[in-house]
Amino acid sequence: MELIHEGKAKRVFADPDSNNRVIIEFSDSVTAGDGAKKDAFPDKGSIACDISELLFSYLEGKGIDTHYIKRLKGPQLLCKKVTIFPVEVVCRNIAAGSFSKRYGVEKGIKFEKPLVEFFVKDDSLHDPLITMGALTRIGLVSRDVLQFLTRVTLSVNYYLSELLKQQGLTLIDFKLEFGMTEDNTIVLADEISPDTMRIWDNKSTSLDKDVFREGKGDLISVYKKLLDTLRASKPEDVEIVKEVVQVIVEPKSGIKNPPGEVTKKALMRLGFAEVDDVRVGKVFNIILKKPITTEILNHLNIMNVKLLSNPISEKHKVRLE
Amino acid sequence: MAIAVLRFPGTNNEEDAIRALSLIEGADPYLVPSRKGLAGLEKADGIFIPGGFSYGDYLRAGAVASVETITEGVRDLAEDGLPVMGVCNGFQILAEMGLLPGALLPNESAHFICKWVYLKVSDRATLFTEGLEGAVIRLPIAHAEGNYYCSDEELEAINDENRIPFRYCNESGEINDIVNPNGSVHNVAGVLSQKGNVLGLMPHPERASRQILGSSDGLLIIENFVRATKC
């Protein structure tokens, strides 16, 4: 098999049977601290592969698009071939790891809402944290895509958190990577394993790579325990949540907007002299039965063209944030 | 000739339309509730979409009706050349369907306007204006969203293609801003489809179909429509 890419813990091969599929092989090696700490544990690749397989299937079942197609023999997954976005998306529910270090925040502090962070995927720069503004200025990823990735990441966070909660575990944080398939669908890619997330039990004991990072136990037995726990979970019991997206329709510039003009006059009568102009549009809160996908985004555009807006006089945008 | 007069939930001019059509010899208007879908159009030789407030004008006037099953049938028949006439909300529906160019925006005054207006009929021949070429006619309007809009390029194109049969004017036929009741570009009151068999008109010809109503000018347009269904 032709090797396409070699990462720290995985190798990607071309699928001899199809141009738009790849075979991802999980290795036994483990690295930490930007590659400073390195080791290998027999069977680790296989367990990480098992966990990724289980979680990708679970997320697919809840409506999230992933690159996962099927499990192959050995520590290998057959996946859709994607172009990976050069950004790692990290979602945090509780302060830990680099977040605690960066801001001097005590490990274990729970956030009111999950936090989504972006990191540039570039080893030579040591994968720095980056803002959405900087990412779009550099032109690495567009704002629309970043908002989409954020939404999907928050959905993944909900579904992973709920599944773990069922088993008395807490999802602290995790890292995702996304890719674009040959047919322009954005999918969740890479892996989802204890190598890429932090999970604590009810005594705040780690069931993830922190065991290796902090040298406090046997990695394989911890990973196995997590796998067994996940296998005992009941994905069907995790409720699917409805998600809201907003469609904003507004009059095109240059098109007269009488409702805005009368509203402006009324504001003037109330004494708000600072108002220069008012343009009245519409906001549609569209409640979806399942997480946002590229297909749903495409549907939202068709909905706009067919019904929600009149493209002759109005412009529309889908707001995901 | 069988003329389907469509009624969507909220349409309220269907009786006026049927009465006016009944005045024309050979016309056999019949009411088609939109829920009948494609079956309601089976025997139609022509289609009249009357005014009113289909679906309460929710979303945009005519928008919801424009995606009904029966409307898809109207599109197919119109593309086959069947005469179709949409008045007021009927015009808004045809524009929302994209069968006619442009869009009908809220009146520039932001008011509902109900009054008699004069229309200058194009002096070039169209299916709906035979015998009226160049005339000034008098019809009533009653709408809140009759402000016709299309891009400058589109306006130039439809003007060149003789697809603007009716424009707002004064009693002597002068077209200017003062007599423009709603802010329509180029004083457009009605437009035709590319093939010329679909007319959208904001003023109400069916309400000007007998002298006792104040004018019978509208009947001439309806007569032309009925004649076209016989072709």
Outline the structure in words.
- The complex is a heterodimer of chains A (321) and B (231).
- Chain A has 8 helices and 17 strands.
- Chain A has 321 residues and is of the alpha+beta class.
- Chain A folds into 2 domains: 206 residues, 2-Layer Sandwich (D-amino Acid Aminotransferase, Chain A, domain 1), CATH 3.30.470.20; 77 residues, Mth169, Chain: A (2-Layer Sandwich).
- With 231 residues, chain B is α/β, with parallel strands linked by helices.
- Chain B has a single domain, classed as Rossmann fold, CATH 3.40.50.880.
- In chain B, 23% of the residues lie in helices and 24% in strands.
- In chain B, the strands form 2 sheets. Chain B has a 9-stranded mixed beta sheet with strand order 2-1-3-4-11-10-9-6-7, with helices on both faces. A two-stranded antiparallel ribbon of chain B has the order 5-8.
- Chain B is globular.
- The interface between A and B is medium-sized, with 13 and 19 residues.
